[in-house]
């Protein structure tokens, strides 16, 4: 089926002048929701290309790709020509760079008053850190990500995915959709200032404030639960218990209580009692789960109402039957790489954007030949 034929973004035109993760991911999401996206790369290409074809493909499949040297008059003029018929431009330079190139919001809106410019930067367009360099870990550190106690035996370790970048991409795509639709009603665009630091702070602030209010309580804070944790098994694998509501503790006790009678102790009956004995409850569970391999625990918990999950490795994730059934993953390049579909199911259906992954500058001729916005099928 056509991509999101019913979508209000179906004829939205977006220039993606960003690189790495936040901007390209935001543009990809809008593309999956129906927008027509042209990726504009500098002559050397998006830095993510150097991280391998898989990394680039996941964030940029389905986009037409052109290469422009925005430091030259010809490159600037070509971008401005495309901007005249565009709904939005996404850029990810440090504050001030687009203005110095002659491509800031003022220059773009002079060409197209209804254009929306989305600037994604580390710390935003204003503030004492605005000009500072940074990447995901910097924003997490300053936004209090590690100020939030998470486990009884807590450690400071890097997240496995770029959490703050994805947070910024989510806010950017949501804000772009609203701003584009608003501009179509009012014929007046606007400049969106997306700070990666602000975005992740919006996620961490509530828990960090709770930690602040708890003072130096550390693992005594309410968010640290001894039975809602990751546990190592006898074969060096790991499992997760997602016990928050007390009914799930009772389900665990019913499942394991005969083999591990210590779980039946009256002093662990309620959440409040377990919170008062975090270290001993957590140590007890560690000992229990370390006594058998992961496969044995999978068999034990199968069909129960215990929120148990095996920690899957990379080989197992894509073969998981639920992943297969939900069809979130799609193959690219003949199955040599993969991408994710938009992870929300619309009853109207979204369809798939093209699996095509363009080479650097592959669509220059098709996109730039007419001096204006080309049809969606050009270069497909």
From TrEMBL:
Listed name of the protein: CoA transferase
Pfam family, one: CoA_transf_3
Keyword Transferase: yes
GO molecular-function terms, A-Z: transferase activity
InterPro entries noted in UniProt: CoA-transferase_III, CoA-Trfase_fam_III, CoA-Trfase_III_dom3_sf, CoA-Trfase_III_dom_1_sf
Organism of this sequence: Cupriavidus oxalaticus
Keywords on record: Plasmid, Transferase
Iron keyword on record: no
């Amino acid at each position: 089926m056509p991509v999101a034929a019913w979508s209000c973004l179906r004829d939205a035109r977006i220039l993606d002048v960003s690189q790495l993760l936040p901007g390209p991911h935001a543009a990809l999401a809008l593309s999956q929701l129906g927008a027509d996206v042209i990726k504009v790369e500098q002559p050397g290409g998006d830095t993510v290309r150097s991280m391998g074809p898989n990394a680039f493909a996941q964030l940029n499949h389905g986009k037409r790709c052109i290469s422009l040297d925005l430091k030259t008059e010809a490159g600037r003029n070509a971008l401005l020509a495309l901007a005249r018929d565009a709904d939005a431009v996404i850029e990810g330079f440090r504050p001030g760079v687009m203005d110095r190139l002659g491509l800031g919001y003022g220059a773009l809106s002079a060409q197209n008053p209804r254009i929306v410019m989305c600037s994604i930067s580390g710390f935003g367009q204003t503030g004492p850190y605005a000009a500072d360099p940074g990447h995901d870990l910097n924003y997490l550190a300053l936004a209090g990500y590690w100020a939030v106690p998470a486990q009884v035996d807590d450690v400071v370790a890097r997240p496995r995915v770029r959490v703050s970048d994805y947070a910024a991409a989510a806010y950017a795509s949501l804000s772009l959709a609203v701003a584009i639709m608003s501009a179509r009603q009012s014929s007046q665009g606007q400049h969106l200032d997306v700070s990666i630091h602000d975005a992740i702070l919006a996620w961490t602030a509530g828990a960090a404030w709770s930690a602040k209010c708890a003072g130096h309580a550390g693992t005594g804070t309410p968010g640290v639960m001894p039975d809602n944790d990751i546990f190592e098994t006898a074969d060096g694998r790991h499992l997760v218990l997602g016990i928050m509501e007390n009914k799930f503790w009772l389900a665990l006790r019913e499942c394991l209580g005969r083999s591990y009678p210590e779980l039946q102790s009256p002093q662990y009956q309620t959440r409040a009692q377990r919170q008062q004995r975090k270290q001993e409850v957590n140590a007890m569970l560690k000992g229990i789960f370390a006594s058998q391999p992961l496969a044995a625990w999978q068999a034990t918990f199968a069909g129960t109402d215990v929120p148990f999950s095996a920690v899957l490795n990379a080989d197992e994730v894509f073969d998981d039957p639920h992943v297969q059934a939900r069809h979130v993953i799609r193959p690219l390049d003949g199955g040599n790489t993969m991408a994710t579909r938009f992870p929300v199911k619309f009853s109207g259906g979204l369809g798939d954007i093209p699996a095509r992954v363009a080479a650097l500058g592959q669509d220059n001729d098709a996109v730039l030949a007419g001096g204006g916005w080309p049809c969606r099928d050009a270069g497909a």
